[in-house]
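Annex B. Sample input.
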Amino acid sequence: MVEIFNNIREVHRFMKPCEELADHIEFFSESAPPGSLIGAPESVKMFPSWTPTFWINLGTSYQLAVGDRNYLIKSTDDILVLRDTSVEKLKRPTDHIFTVKFHPGGLEAVLGISQVSLIGQVINLNAILPPAFLQKIKQLLCFEERLTLMQDFLLSRFKNRSKDHYLQFVNDCIDGYDEAGMQLNTSEMAERMFVTSKTINRYFNKVVGTSPKNYFTIMRARTALTAYVAQKGNFIPYDFGYYDMSHFYKDVVKFTGQKLIQNLT
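Annex B, continued. Sample output.
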């Protein structure tokens, strides 16, 4: 199963966060309980998004490929990955994972942890969250109970944090890029924000861990490819800042490493 090309929601439950956390957390999710899916895909491949993600293991061990490195995640292991590169999880019938996916910079906004320090790593979640709290999450009986406990914990930490100028600036840029139909380059965004290109690059590298050009390219490709897969016949590349379909196709290959024909025929 390949993210965007296939419907990953078939093997997961999803829930949006409360309004107070919505600017910083994209969703909570949980894979289907062990043995509940017949003929489930052997793997799930996810593309770069620069979105810090908690993976709390409720099942058995599993294999994880992050970029060109392979990891064995034991049944007792809970991890944090930045999603700065491709991530592929090899699935087993006994898999069961609870997930919290943050927006870029969201981990820092809520818990005060810069995602820049996570680049290229798989972090043991015990270094981020209290081990006793993680064990309590695992002992709960259902997704709704885990979601409530995790959200209450994150809310308690978030309410005690002050707003960060750099993070707010980057969030405003991301919102502005979307509102402008994903048409702006770095220089145009800098002008819109009344700063220099050097400043906007410095802010993005400080908060997200990559340049605005690279992040916006990923954001546009993910959004456009999602729209294309959903309604191919109504897809217009200009709506996403592409010059033509050829420009879009090239970006898909750059972003996913695959051609559309490999997945949509």
